[in-house]
Design a protein that fits this description.
Length: 198
Amino acid sequence: MRTEVLDVPTSKGMARVHVQLDEASAGLLVLGHGAGGGVDSPDLRAARDAGLDSGMAVALVEQPYRVAGRRVPPPIAAAAQAWVEVVQHLRERFADGVLVAGGRSFGGRVACRSAVEVGADAVLCLAFPLVSPKGADRGPELYGVRLPVLVVQGERDPFGLPEEGEGRTVVVVQGTHTLNKDGDRISRVVSEWLRECL
């Protein structure tokens, strides 16, 4: 297992990417963090482990605003632009196999909005915030994705429970929006789904 930390320049500042991979990876799983968090959240670690167990290279992306020390994200369009540039950089380095884009909460929103632009084959959302704290409906970001999508959602997530649909699987696990109580199940569910994607 090889581990790399890459600093990737983007038009929104420097992003940092934590990559783990074997020499012969079946694809690339790229995951972004939540709005105020980092890449070490329990659900991202569980998804990372699932990706590695499935034979994929895994890249955990720290957005430029987090690398710069800020906790409040920029407008989502700016975050999506940085994300696209990072994923394009990663695809040049790790071009083989399928590309699964995703993330937790804000990171999942970014992945959904840019899935077509980055050429993703599937999207993984952990704790997708279906409704904003101010009540805005973010359903179109998720429901507009026309690729295979897995949503892993806490049973008591205050930001809503997405609906299943064509190509969209929703798995409910213990917990709230933090998804910090059922890591083993999250890892199993993500691993099974990834194997279907490969």
